[in-house]
Known about the structure:
By secondary structure, the chain is mainly beta. 8% of the residues lie in helices and 43% in strands.
Amino acid sequence: MGLATRMAVMERGRLLQVDSPRAIYERPANRLVASFIGQVNLLPGELRAEAGGWRFHCPALATEFVLEAAPPAGPALLALRPERLRLLRPGAAAAENRLRARVTGVLYRGESSLLRLSGR
């Protein structure tokens, strides 16, 4: 017996998104759907169209992220999934889509660890 190929996320009887589990996880329709499966950090900011692509300006982190594709420009949330992030040692070569942060806590979970980071 396998897992469902389609699933629905509802809130108070209202249908928010019907799609494959992968699509709901990777392309959620809104904030509630993004937090439905797995852990996620949601960062408020603004999408800006620029020559050759899109940038997500995040005032809380004083940085911008380069995006391959995006919806129309304007206010938006950027969903960061912990398993998609990599830690680099201090002094690693600068590149796009990097944040400077300090590890302020570690929670050991057997196969993985949950790190608390501070960007300030």
